[in-house]
């Protein structure tokens, strides 16, 4: 087992609730004299993680989940309120945009300053300067004040310095999102090389692609706590599924709360399963979607039905309009119909069946109702669905 | 080691920034106090007809200049350094480094500028006023800058830390520092004060320095060994208190910036 670079136990951070003038004076008094607790808001609590040399950890979570706070704690910018934090080795942190640049100074001057902050000066710096400037690749802007830079150029410069410093532990906070495509690729390539050389990385990103590409472990923070941590694929899947669910709940909740819809789904049943329980079927078996919809003004809705995997990846979607099916309304504006998937070819896994009524033009979605579907089986095929296929021997004929 | 290079880097940057964009650049370090001295000289010598009492008393302009420069270094250092943490909030939020460096750098840069000014102006005055001595007394006066620096550093560390929490401090300081100046024998000699007030002046930490500079450069009055001991003690105490308090509050800066 390699050496532990970062270990946190029960780490927590609270910010003082203040910001009236009186609160600040009171806070100062408490810190200096009475040493009583200051009223505070917890932004991070009970975080225990461990990062060993050579590991790469991705931090994911919604905005405000505490990712940046955790990075700031590890990089030493913030001091923890509770718990313990031990960091070994040299840390290079790229926190947010700007990386502590001085806007009035030129890029070159800022390189010197930042390098000094990381303990590099004199001859070593002079030797590295051309490499940094070349990596940043911002042309004549290097001798202009940083205030004239675009946000992408600031990130380029910041990353270039870190790239040349090659710290033991690299911490970056959502910096890849700002650079252009070419620079992103360059950074990712650099990070991969850095990891291959035994570097250690903690990366915050909202791009699951970057996280999965660069990290082997991931940690999902939710409301300041570790919701899940472990293998990068497991954690990102769970996170995406959670996001998808939350979004869907918000959307349908908001629409339904907004009064009666023009077209509404009254009920959806998968086979004969009542309520919102999942329908469990064996692989290769078909199922029926029984629908009951209502139209407020007697116009005929277009009915769309889709199947998505639990993490939100669409598998298949179809509408009554595409199939040329006209739902018949009764006198109260209600329509009932059944959509039969006789041979769905779904591989084992968790899925969701979604039903949306659309206006007769098939343009606006009015409602969303979901029902869970579980396909069971023991095949070892990969993916979502079985695609019809066959193998041919070298000189085989097309059958 | 890293801390030292960092301090130098910040101090140099501070100096560059202070004179950035001005034509005269670093010359302002001498120019500005010289201008101030000229104004004071006009007002006090021509308008108020001020004189230093005593048979071998030095000229008023030399008397004023010798103590005014150290004062400028002292007060400028405190004023600048008090805002050091607040002004660098963005940097503190993004990079981890010992924050005291910011305060030390500002005090250093202020002292560097005004020490240079002091040397230049005393050398010029020596041409016109033979009571100004450029020998050992002058060298001793340079030594006086050391405890003054430590004193200013202690006060600056304390104020810089408190300023993070109570932003009014700098406003208050711009009012209070001149008061401290007027309560020290810089514009006048202690001898012209009514006798019952004279001992009170010693409470002002700058009084010792004003009189010590007068004594060493101009040979006006003398420096009591007890005065030196007292000044060293005050400087050491100020530094210790400032340092301890800064260290105590350091970890909470980010929360309040």
Descriptive tags:
heterodimer, A: 399 residues, alpha/beta, Rossmann fold, Immunoglobulin-like, 2 domains, 6-stranded mixed β-sheet, 5-stranded mixed β-sheet, 9 helices, 18 strands, B: 257 residues, mainly alpha, 74% helix, globular
Note down, in words, how this protein is organized.
The complex is a heterodimer of chains A (399) and B (257). By secondary structure, chain A is of the alpha/beta class. Chain A has two domains: 228 residues, Rossmann fold (3-Layer(aba) Sandwich), CATH 3.40.50; 117 residues, Immunoglobulin-like. Chain A contains nine helices and 18 strands. In chain A, strands 6-7-8-4-9-10 form a six-stranded mixed beta sheet, sandwiched between helices. In chain A, helix 3 packs across helix 5. The longest helix of chain A is centred in the middle third of the chain and has 26 residues. Chain A is globular and about 85 Å long. Chain B is mainly alpha-helical and 257 residues long. Chain B has one domain. Chain B has twelve helices and no strands. The longest helix of chain B has 30 residues. Chain B is globular.
Task: Tell me briefly what this model is.
The complex is a heterodimer of chains A (399) and B (257). Helices cover 29% and strands 31% of the residues of chain A.
List the helices and strands and how they pair.
The complex is a heterodimer of chains A (399) and B (257).
Chain A: E1 4-16, H1 21-34, E2 40-47, E3 50-52, E4 56-60, H2 67-75, E5 82-87, E6 91-94, H3 107-117, H4 122-136, H5 151-165, E7 169-173, H6 181-196, E8 200-204, H7 208-214, E9 217-222, E10 225-231, H8 232-257, E11 263-270, E12 279-282, E13 287-295, E14 302-309, E15 314-319, H9 320-323, E16 334-341, E17 349-358, E18 369-376
Helix pairs in contact in A: 3-4, 3-5, 4-5
Chain B: H1 2-19, H2 28-47, H3 60-82, H4 84-87, H5 89-92, H6 100-128, H7 136-165, H8 169-182, H9 198-201, H10 205-218, H11 225-250, H12 253-256
């Amino acid at each position: 087992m390699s050496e532990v670079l970062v270990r946190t136990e029960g780490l927590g951070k609270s910010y003082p609730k203040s910001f009236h003038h009186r609160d600040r004076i009171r806070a100062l008094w408490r810190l200096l004299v009475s040493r009583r607790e200051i009223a505070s808001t917890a932004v991070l609590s009970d975080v225990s993680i461990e990062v060993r040399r050579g590991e790469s950890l991705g931090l994911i979570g919604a905005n405000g989940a505490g990712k940046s706070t955790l990075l700031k704690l590890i990089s030493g910018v913030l001091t923890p309120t509770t718990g313990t934090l031990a960091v070994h080795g040299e840390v290079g942190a790229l926190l947010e945009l700007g990386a502590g640049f001085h806007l009035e100074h030129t890029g070159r001057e800022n390189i010197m300053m930042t390098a000094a902050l990381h303990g590099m000066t004199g001859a070593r710096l002079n030797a590295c300067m051309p490499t940094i400037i070349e990596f940043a690749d911002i042309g004549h802007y290097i001798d202009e004040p940083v205030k004239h830079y675009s946000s992408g150029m600031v990130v380029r410069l910041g990353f270039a310095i870190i790239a040349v410093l090659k710290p033991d532990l690299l911490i970056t906070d959502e910096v890849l999102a700002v650079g252009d495509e070419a620079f992103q690729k360059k950074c990712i390539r650099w990070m991969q090389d850095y990891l291959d050389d035994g570097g250690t990385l903690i990366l915050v990103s909202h791009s699951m692609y970057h996280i999965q590409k660069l990290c082997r472990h991931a940690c999902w923070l939710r409301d300041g706590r570790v919701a899940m941590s472990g293998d990068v694929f497991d954690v990102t899947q769970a996170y995406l599924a959670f996001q998808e669910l939350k979004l869907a709940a918000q959307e349908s909740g908001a629409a339904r709360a907004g009064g009666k819809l023009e077209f509404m789904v009254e009920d959806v049943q998968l086979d004969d399963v009542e309520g919102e329980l999942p329908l469990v079927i064996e692989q290769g078996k078909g199922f029926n979607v029984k629908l009951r919809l209502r139209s407020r003004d007697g116009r005929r809705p277009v009915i769309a039905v889709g199947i998505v995997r639990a993490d939100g990846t669409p598998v298949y979607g179809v509408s009554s309009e595409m199939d040329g099916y006209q739902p018949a309304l009764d006198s109260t504006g209600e329509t009932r119909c059944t959509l039969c998937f006789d041979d769905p070819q779904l591989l084992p896994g968790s899925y969701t069946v979604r039903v949306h009524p659309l206006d007769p033009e098939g343009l606006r979605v009015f409602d969303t109702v979901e029902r869970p579907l579980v396909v069971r089986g023991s095949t070892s095929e990969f993916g979502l669905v079985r695609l019809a296929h066959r193998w041919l021997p070298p000189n085989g004929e097309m059958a | 080691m890293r801390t030292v290079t960092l301090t130098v880097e910040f101090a140099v940057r501070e100096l560059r920034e202070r004179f950035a964009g001005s034509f005269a650049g670093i010359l302002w370090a001498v120019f500005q106090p010289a201008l101030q001295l000229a104004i004071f000289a006009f007002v006090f010598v021509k308008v108020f007809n001020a004189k230093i009492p005593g048979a071998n008393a030095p000229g008023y302009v030399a008397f004023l200049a010798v103590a005014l420069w150290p004062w400028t270094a002292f007060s400028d250092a405190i004023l600048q350094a008090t805002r050091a943490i607040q002004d660098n909030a963005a940097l503190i939020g993004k990079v981890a480094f010992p924050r005291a460096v910011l305060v030390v750098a500002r005090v250093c840069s202020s002292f560097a500028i005004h020490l240079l000014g002091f040397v230049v102006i005393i050398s010029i005055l020596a041409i016109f006023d033979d009571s100004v001595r450029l020998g050992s007394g002058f060298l001793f006066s340079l030594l006086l800058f050391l405890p003054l620096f430590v004193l200013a550093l202690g006060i600056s560390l304390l104020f810089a830390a408190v300023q993070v929490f109570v932003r009014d401090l700098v406003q208050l300081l711009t009012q209070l520092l001149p008061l401290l100046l007027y309560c020290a024998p810089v514009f006048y000699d202690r001898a012209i004060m009514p006798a019952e007030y004279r001992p009170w002046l010693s409470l002002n930490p700058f009084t010792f320095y004003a009189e010590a500079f007068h004594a060493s450069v101009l040979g006006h009055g003398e420096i009591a060994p007890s005065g030196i001991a007292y000044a060293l003690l005050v400087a050491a105490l100020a530094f210790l208190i400032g340092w301890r308090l800064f260290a105590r509050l350091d970890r909470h800066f980010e929360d309040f910036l």
